[in-house]
Amino acid sequence: MEEILVLAEHRRGKLRDITFEMLNFASAFASQNGVQLTVLLLGQDISEMADRLENSCDNLLLLDSPELGSYSPGPYLQALEKTIQERSPFLTLIGHTAIGMDLAPPLAARLTIPLMSDCLDAMLDNGHLEVQRQIYGGKINANLRLKPFDQYLVTLRPGCFSASVSHDRSAEKVAIKPPDWSYFRRRFLEYVEAELADVDITAADILVSVGRGIGKPENISLIEEFADAIGATLSCSRPVADKEWLPKSRQVGTSGKTVRPRVYIALGISGAFQHQAGMKNAETIIAVNKDGRAPIFNVAHYGIVGDLFQVIPVLKEKFAK
Ligand SMILES: Cc1cc2nc3c(=O)[nH]c(=O)nc-3n(C[C@H](O)[C@H](O)[C@H](O)COP(=O)(O)OP(=O)(O)OC[C@H]3O[C@@H](n4cnc5c(N)ncnc54)[C@H](O)[C@@H]3O)c2cc1C
Question: Core-most of 84, 87, 211, 307, by most CB within 10 Å?
Fold first, then answer.
């Protein structure tokens, strides 16, 4: 075991947080296990991004090519496959993002190496790789030990590690040779910016977030009034957006927005991992749920087990004073 390889992820010329989160994990893993930390940066005009990465890894592999200008599975797959075949890293890390979910399964199949997807953590125990994943809709974290293999592929869930990395390494930048580009079944055509939202929930200081526990759309006005009374912005879980009770732009979670407000108040939200991934880094989390075993209480700093229709009027009155 000599190397851990991280695929840097970026969009429109900017490295994404998941890159630094993976580096944070990989740096500790590399130090604990005495292995090199290598980053693979694929793209076009990548020198600025390379400069940001050079002090966070031991080797920086760069492939700058028009074929990699925007993410497209064919060229990415080919470049990664070639790099892994040539370097045989013990562990290859990809973000569990839209890109990673697209890329990792065909990559593992082509290389016939085991893939563990959507991991919260990974560790070595007596030479065996163990990963942590959530099961039963996020109610339990399970540590799974993998059968011995020379190489593993792991996708890491966003938001599990801090994105602030130490810059205590020094990488040699190595320009790698492109493969003979051949898989071009899909081509990138254009980047379409999402529609402008009515409010930007990611910029809110206080969020009051409503879930399916609200019961019916007519009840949302109660939460709206509460949010207004405390100067908060209204956000929601996915079912509320899916039912069009609130606009999609208000949805928090993996298929919505990631928020980091000072205060996040979750009302009638169970706290499925897809929701938690979007809010668990809020400074203070307050949850109201009538089910004391709801997973939201695992991340909440303060919790009220109770009926939100009884709790909210009381809170509103207290705040209004
Ligand atoms: C690919 C994928 C992506 C997803 N992306 C997202 C995402 O971005 N964001 C997201 O939120 N979800 C997402 N989901 C859905 C997610 O798995 C959950 O289904 C969803 O978060 C549940 O929403 P909820 O907590 O509002 O509803 P539920 O899970 O139904 O929970 C409702 C909660 O309300 C409580 N409750 C009911 N009545 C009351 C009351 N009167 N007072 C107090 N509490 C009450 C219940 O005890 C329960 O815990 C995604 C799922 C998939 C498969």
Answer: 211
Specify the DSSP class assigned to residue 178: P
Pocket test of ligand 1: the residue of 274, 279, 293, 304 to mutate, having most ligand atoms within 8 Å of its CB, is 274
Structure tokens at 315: 């809170």
Percentage above 90 pLDDT, the chain: 76
Q: How far from 83 is each of 6, 86, 92, 96, 242, CA to CA, in Å?
A: 11, 5, 10, 20, 41
Q: For residue 240, which atom of ligand 1 is closest to its CA?
A: 26
Is residue 320's pLDDT more than 70?
no
Residue nearest to atom 11 of ligand 1 (CA): 237
Pocket test of ligand 1: the residue of 238, 250, 310 to mutate, having most ligand atoms within 8 Å of its CB, is 238
Contact 269, 250 (CB under 8 A): no
- CB atoms < 10 A from the CB of 276, how many? 24
What is the model's pTM?
A: 0.70
Say what the pLDDT of residue 24 is.
95
Which residue spans within 100-258 are E strands per DSSP? 115-119, 121-125, 128-135, 140-145, 152-156, 172-175, 206-210, 233-236
Residues 271/296, Cβ–Cβ less than 8 Å: yes
Residue ranges of the alpha helices (H) in 17-134?
A: 17-33, 47-53, 73-87, 98-111
Residue 218 DSSP label: G
239 lines ligand 1 (CB under 6 A): yes
What tokens appear for 19 in the block? 């890159």
Q: Is 238 in the pocket of ligand 1 (CB under 6 A)?
A: yes
